[in-house]
Amino acid sequence: MFSRVIFMDSVQSTTQVELTNQAKRPLNNPPFSHKVVNYTIPVTPYVNKYYLNTSTGCVGAYSQKLIPIPPSTDPPRPIVKIDYAVAPFYCELGCGGNNTNEFDITQYQFGICQAQDICLCNPGYYGDQCQFLTCSCVHGYCDIPNVCICQPADGWTGARCETPLCTK
User: Fold this and answer.
1) Could you count the other beta carbons within 10 Å of the beta carbon of residue 48?
2) Is the pTM of this model over 0.70?
3) N or C: which end of the chain has fewer CB within 10 A?
4) pLDDT given at position 1
5) Calpha distance 21→137 (Å, rounded)
6) Contacts of 46 (CB under 8 A, 6+ apart)
7) How many Å from the N-terminal Cα to the C-terminal Cα in the chain?
8) Peptide linkage before 70 cis (omega within 30 of 0)
9) Cβ atoms within 10 A of the Cβ of 109, count?
10) Which residues form the EGF-like domain (predicted)?
């Protein structure tokens, strides 16, 4: 029987260290009588990615050294695995634009997901999913918040496209 111990440097860490430990005796028999159960992660697209620094070996129960996991006899070697954890909350429709952090599904181009389906929009964006940008153009449009794009062919200029090109 083996147990798994996982360490993280900090709560913001995207990398974990995993140590597989060899148990000294079967933990599902007396005097311990632990229940051995399967751990299943639900099938969901709402997961956070993280790196797992681990090994092809385990910590021996008696030697406390890295040994091959039986029945293998190959020497243990360090490996990095990618693993996923179900996100504690998510915004199903996103918070504007694309996800900007492959390790955290709550960070988007135009806002962050603060709680289940609740977005906090970045300055210059608004809406339930931060899908709108603020634009104060009189005659024109914005591609980024509050930066007007005037169409000279339409006859307007100025910071907010408010000045006519021709004053006939």
Assistant:
1) 18
2) no
3) C
4) 46
5) 64
6) 86, 87, 90, 92, 105
7) 89
8) no
9) 14
10) 119-130
Q: How far is CA 55 from CA 5, 42, 68, 77, in A?
A: 12, 26, 9, 5
Tokens of 43: 């099938």
* Contact of 65 with 21, CB cutoff 8 Å: no
For residue 107, give both structure tokens.
């960070």
Q: What is residue 128's three-state secondary structure?
A: coil
Structure tokens at 97: 């634009």
Nearest to 34 by CA among 3, 63, 70: 3
For residue 68, what are the contacts with CB-CB under 8 A and spacing of at least 6? 56, 57, 58, 74, 75, 76
pLDDT digit string, tens, across residues 49-83:
888 788 888 877 778 788 888 788 889 888 888 88
Residue type, 126: Y
